[in-house]
Amino acid sequence: MLCSYIMSAQILDGRKAREALLPGLMEKIRGLSFVPTLAIIQVSDRIDSTSFIKAKKAFAKKIGVNEKHIQLAENISQEKVIDIVRECNADSNIQGIIVQLPLPAHIERDIVINTIDPNKDVDALTAMNVSKWSEGRGILPATARGVRELLKFYKISLKDKKVTVVGRSELVGKPIAIMCRNEGAIVTVCHSKTLDLATETKKADIIICAVGKLGLIQSKHVKRGQIIIDVGINRKEDGMLAGDVDFQSVKNIVAAITPVPGGVGQMTVLALFENLVDICGNI
Ligand code: NAD
Fold it and tell me: I need a surface site. Which of 4, 59, 95, 168 has the fewest CB within 10 A?
């Protein structure tokens, strides 16, 4: 009798990795001569931004770091937002600043971001910090650092691996692609104009998807043995969160996959505070 069985992918559990890495972060925090403070500037009350900020605030509390949440009205002027960023720059009690993105359409993201003091730019998005991490120096944007640490935790090396990054935004896809390249991977970047996504994803050892489209990656995009890192966060009709990858349709094909929720998002929050502590270590 022929015996057939279905292999299920290894779950790359962000919660587990974060818990395991927490003592190291706490140790570093204890080694500082002061308690760091992260300023979080939120313009508007978008539900997704509010829930991301809630997660950051809860983690700050857990690790004993201060946070200062500055919530601003959706219709605030760009000049006023810039003034508030400058106030945070000048405040010696604040070591890290993030402006929660996206910003409302009337505010130019790059102008506001580049007002942040690069020495307090905890998500490494100012032009000065972008040029540093592009060359493999300085801190990485939190999502890219989180992906790197999750892979490292599961002993998955990027060196000489073929990595296809789907999504090329300045904030997420691009830093992840550059991080992978700097770790020695051979990187292909796909985007909304990519003609044959499945061909590009199927040739990879590791697929990293950061698009924001529910179920974009289906069984036809993957092959046996691949590692799938799902960065996307989407809200389903029932209100639950899900990634860009159709988890159910790929889980019996690929070798390993991150869940959403409970995958990269967990690591991004950890990485943000690791960045804060690194900044504080340099003061
Ligand atoms: P974005 O809209 O700025 O960029 C999306 C990218 O996807 C673009 O480069 C676009 O070209 C590409 N794209 C769009 N349609 C495509 C298609 N059909 N095929 C291939 N590429 C396509 O979004 P973003 O800010 O980069 O965020 C992407 C996703 O990552 C979102 O779901 C966001 O919520 C999530 N995110 C997750 C974390 C985390 O920690 N897990 C952190 C930040 C962002």
Answer: 4
**Is any atom of ligand 1 closer than 6 Å to the C-beta of 262?**
no
pTM: 0.96
Q: Whose CA is nearest to atom 8 of ligand 1?
A: 167
Residue 123 annotated among the catalytic residues of the structure? yes
* Local confidence pLDDT in tens for the 283 residues of the chain: 444 556 799 999 999 999 999 999 999 999 999 999 999 999 988 988 999 999 999 999 999 999 999 999 999 999 999 999 999 999 999 999 999 999 999 999 999 999 999 999 999 999 999 999 999 999 999 999 999 999 999 999 999 999 999 999 999 999 999 999 999 999 999 999 999 999 999 999 999 999 999 999 999 999 999 999 999 999 999 999 999 999 999 999 999 999 999 999 999 999 999 999 999 987 6
With b for 16 or more beta-carbon neighbours within 10 A and e for fewer, the 100-112 pattern comes to: bbebbeebebeeb
* Dist CA 232 CA 210 (whole Å): 5
From the number of C-beta atoms within 10 Å of its C-beta (0-12, 13-18, 19+), residue 217 rates as buried
Catalytic residue among 13, 42, 56, 266: 56
Residue 141 in contact with ligand 1 by CB distance below 6 A: no
Active-site annotation holder among 42, 100, 226, 266: 100
